[in-house]
Amino acid sequence: MGKMRIEFNSAGFQALLSGPEVRADIERRTRAIADAAGENFEAQVKVGMAHGGMRVIGTVAPTSFKGVKEEAEHKVLTSALGAGR
Length: 85
Fold this sequence. Notes:
This protein is α+β, with helices and mostly antiparallel strands and 85 residues long. The chain contains 4 helices and 2 strands. It has a two-stranded antiparallel ribbon with strand order 1-2. The protein is elongated, with a radius of gyration of 17 Å.
């Protein structure tokens, strides 16, 4: 059998990683994690540079010192990560 060559379509990857379907999925997952963590956490989704290209980036972070304290003492955000599956 001969050698197989794979040529990646970079523009196609970029379109996929920043497309509306991926954004909707990331929004759903980050919202579920933030909801599971509680009222002191919020989800944010944006398109930005990561790993050399534009892609959808989702974060969940505390909105107050109380949220920071809840995570530090009780790991509420860490425990909520399963909600994003």
